[in-house]
Task: structure prediction
Amino acid sequence: MRPTPLLLALTLALPAAAQAETLALQCGRLFDSATGRNLPERTVVVADGKVSEVREGHAAVPGATAVDLKGHTCSPGWIDLHVHLSGESSPQSYSEGFRLNPEFTVLRSTAYASRTLRAGFTSVRDLGGETTLALRDAVNQGWVEGPRIFAAGKSIATTGGHADPTNGFNHLISDALGTPGPAEGVVNSPDEARQAVRQRYKDGSDVIKITATGGVLSYARSGDAPQFTVDEVAAVVQTAHDYGYRVAAHAHGKEGMRRAIVGGVDTIEHGTYMDDEIFALMKKNGTWYVPTISAGRFVAEKAKIDGYYPDVVRPKAARIGSQIQDTFGRAWKAGVKIGFGTDAGVGLHGDNADEFVFMVEAGMPPAEALRAATANAAEILGRPELGRVAAGLPADIVAMPGDPLADIAATRKVDFVMKDGRIVRQPE
Ligand SMILES: [Zn+2]
Result:
């Protein structure tokens, strides 16, 4: 079925529940995220936003509209556990904060959300960006096209740390703004850490993000020094768990990572300078690793261009960026649990599937890379009903020509996307 422009416009304007039609997706193959294998010739029946049945073969389903995906591999919709929909890095990023209004930022982010969804990512975890909370709500209302968003809101940092919102400002501006505190996501004690988490609860966050070490793109010298004490991390984690939140920790350097893991965080993001000792500690504590190879490669590439990054950022981007893919390969071999994340926003939104290719380049089998973005990612979100295609579960389904298990680059060619049972795009 080829929707008319009018039908398409109506479909886009209506929330998912209003699409009453029953659809039968005739998939050439269906990736099973539980086993990591392709099931041949399956028909996925979708009604009322959910999968109602998965049948063997391609027989017609009475009362259902068939969607021909016989040359395609279908998969549970992918989940990117690390994006920043509020921006996209460029040489202008460092002055944008002074020029752009939040209204503009959130409108721009609607384009990033649409690109992300159309690339096959039906859910994302947004790890830092206040305007994403409004974007999430607008997507959930059906006003804006985008993935399901699980948003951290403002990241929690320490003074001068990665995500202190006043880094790099001159003292006139800093004095006028005042010293940022727990409400702004800056803490310097366990008590303030608890207050900052409670503020995120008040703001409506879905997940808590801390910056356990310095970061590449912040206007500060060190990209890897520890920036939280174990007590501060533990206070964040205990308070977050009170509210049912998971905690994600940005970390490049070893000591900050160690403290984050000991303090009880659920995921380590980037993990650049992990070694065998950290791998063992993560396995012992059940900590997940979300590598973001895409961002590492992107910043290392851009660091070669004069003027792309400020002088204080450029050497960090060159040194840290080039390391992540190698670290990921070693972590995978060591048996660390892996979730899929790109840090899109540092790199470009919509190129998220490149991460699959980078993971496989580093030694991970294609099936495991796909599981990292489906079953594993859903587990990390605490939403196991996502990341699977099965009767009774939300119908988040993507499809691409070819077979990603044979050639992982097929993931870059997604041309069918369904979210909540509604078709977002389909092959020409
Ligand atoms: Zn990030």
Q: What stands out?
A: The pocket of zinc ion is lined by residues 82, 84, 127-128, 343 (CB under 6 Å). The longest strand covers residues 65-76.
